[in-house]
Amino acid sequence: CGLNGIDDQGAMAEKYPLMNGYWEDKIPDFSKITVPAYVTAGWNHFHLRGSVNGWRKIASPQKWLRAHREFEWPDFYSAKYLPELKAFFDRYCKGIRNGWESTPRVRIEVQDRFDDSLCVDRPEKEFPLARTQYKKLYLNAADASMGHENPAAEAEVRYDANEGEIVFDHTFERDTELTGYMKLHAWVEAVGHDDMDLFVTVKKLSRSGVEQPVTIFDGTAPHPGAWGKMRVSHRELDPELSSDFQPVQAHRRELKLSAGEIVPIDVEINPTSRIWHAGETIRVHVAGRYIREPHWIEPLVWETDNKGEHVFHTGGRYESYLQIPVIPPKYDDDTVFVVDETAHPTHPIF
Fold first, then answer.
1. Which pLDDT tens digit goes with each residue over 302-325?
2. Are residues 18 and 89 in the same domain?
3. Residues of the domain holding 36
4. Is residue 346 predicted with pLDDT exceeding 70?
């Protein structure tokens, strides 16, 4: 037990590293949540995954999602959004008919670089977006690149399991928006150990090759990009919870690696929304350690199980790729505007 009678999650994760009754008891029955909900999610915060998954799963027919770049606290209580929160409570706690229902069901901020965004509060009808086009960028260990075709030749790249890192780059030829879930499918091998801890970050580079993080919380905390992590012995997926765009680990058993064994993995990358302009580069960064600053508090990321070397295999039999959620424009030059009587694109006036 931790402070104030609250579970010590770090200690309990060490005691019960696999899914069991203790952890199952903490999973809510989302089908029973039917009350109206206004959910916000910060693209660059470790609460992101739970916020978005919770919004997607709750059964309420009256639910709203707004995704943004900030920490939840400064966003939620900002002068801009506090009136929205009050209007939501006025509508559903006091019964005041103030037009809240005309609020778009989903709004997203499409980030660019630093504190710039392509747009803020863009209205959408669902998340993930129905018009998403999932594309694969195939890894090539021979030259640290990513491309649209799986390389014919097999190749490998290795790094020190604790201090090393590898990258794979792809330069976009045209402006490209990525909004939603990414996943990294890769073939990996551990040399000198029976397990691997992997930390994956999807970064943005300028046309001149300089990393372009996102600044949040009044510019004090640069965030490198969308991220995911996996202990390879926990690579088995839950078939009921997983989808093609979101692999979800089962955590039911450990599958330790044997010497020379090469296994496929699917790493879930937390959702994001970001624009890459023509000539800018998307980079997959892989390391055996957490790459954020030490003062960032994220449970268990320091308790790694790495020794020896990590090896990534690509090409030929080892089809490894980053799957990305490409968002086409809502409109093109031939679009004819038709009024959708079921949509409410305008924001309410409070």
1. 689 999 999 999 999 999 999 999
2. yes
3. 3-124
4. no
Residue 310 lies in a domain: yes
Is the pLDDT at 294 greater than 60? The verdict is no
Q: Could you tell me which residues come within 8 angstroms of residue 134 by beta carbon, excluding any fewer than 6 positions away?
A: 244, 245, 323, 324, 325, 326
Residue 346 in any domain: the answer is no
Structural domain ending residue among the three candidates 104, 124, 144: 124
Are 63 and 105 contacting, i.e. CB atoms less than 8 angstroms apart? yes
Residue ranges of alpha helices (H) inside 195-304 are none
User: Domain count of the chain?
Assistant: 2
Inter-CA distances, 200 with 32, 40, 110, 185, 267, Å: 34, 24, 21, 11, 8
The answer to whether 9 and 22 have CB atoms below 8 angstroms apart is no
Contact by Cβ (8 Å): 69, 108: no
**What is the C-alpha to C-alpha distance for residues 180 and 124, in angstroms, rounded to an integer?**
12
User: For residue 164, what is the domain's CATH number?
Assistant: 2.60.120.260
Question: Alpha-carbon distance 62 to 215, whole Å?
Answer: 32
Residue 50, helix vs strand vs coil: helix
Q: Rounded distance, CA 82 to CA 49, Å?
A: 23
